[in-house]
Amino acid sequence: MISRISRSYVVHNANPCPSANRNETQELVSMDNALPVKTAVILIGIPASGKTAFFTEYFMDEYIHINLDTLHTRKKETVLLTECLSEGKSFVVDNTNPVILDRQRYIVAAKAEGYRVLGYFFQSVLADCIARNKNRTGKARVPDVAIALKSNELELPCMKEGFDALYYVKLDDGGFIVEEWKNEL
Predict the structure, then answer these.
(1) Which of 21, 37, 46, 80 is 20 to 30 Å apart from 141, CA to CA?
(2) In this predicted structure, what is the pLDDT of residue 33?
(3) Secondary structure class of 171 (helix, strand, coil)
(4) CA–CA dist 22, 16 (Å, integer)
(5) Rounded alpha-carbon distances, angstroms, from residue 153 to 22, 30, 97, 101
(6) Buried b (16+ CB within 10 A) or exposed e, 120-155
(7) What is the residue-level pLDDT of the chain in tens, covering all 185 positions?
(8) Residue 116 pairs with which residues in a beta bridge?
């Protein structure tokens, strides 16, 4: 299984390895080719760290997108999350999820319904995120101070929160490097 390979994968806009097709790429990003039908993915990182681009590239075709930027209210988010859980649909929570308490609302609910929970922590270098944010337009662009505030709040995830697997993601020349989580700090 891929999850037992202890090395990094560079994912550049398409396949992370020469022989991979779209389905193999999906499995590589999840680092596990035996996912149960019901999977909850929690993305963790400050604004402009690459979370939505990662979702779009690797999960959009098969997972429901739960994102406050598009849903606008916690009530709408709760309705969509409840629908996913009751219908057994796999989903990705694409919010900043900076603190354990934020992540627990999804992890506890998903575990109660028998979901496997995967976490992806995005490298969040403040200066890099502010620079990427400057390239955004309209409502997608957030004030620099909001990015700094989320950076100050950010708590590293740990397996004890209820994750079945954790991964570390960083941007690299327009692609992503995904590594298995190594440290519990």
Answers:
(1) 80
(2) 53
(3) strand
(4) 10
(5) 35, 26, 10, 11
(6) bbbbbebebbbebbeeeeeeeebeeeebeebbeebe
(7) 222 222 333 333 332 222 233 343 344 444 455 545 799 999 999 888 889 999 999 999 999 999 988 898 999 999 999 999 999 999 999 999 999 999 999 999 999 999 999 999 998 788 887 888 788 877 777 877 778 778 888 899 999 999 999 999 988 877 899 999 986 54
(8) 39
Q: What is the Cα Rg of the chain in Å? A: 16
Asked whether the beta carbons of 6 and 56 are under 8 A apart, the reply is: no
Helices (H), the chain: 22-30, 51-58, 68-71, 74-87, 100-112, 126-133, 144-153
Burial class (CB in 10 A: 0-12, 13-18, 19+), 67: middle
Under 8 Å between Cβ of 68 and 122: no
What does pTM read for this prediction? Answer: 0.78
Which amino acid is it at 28?
A: L
**Which residues are bridge partners to 169 per DSSP?**
122, 178
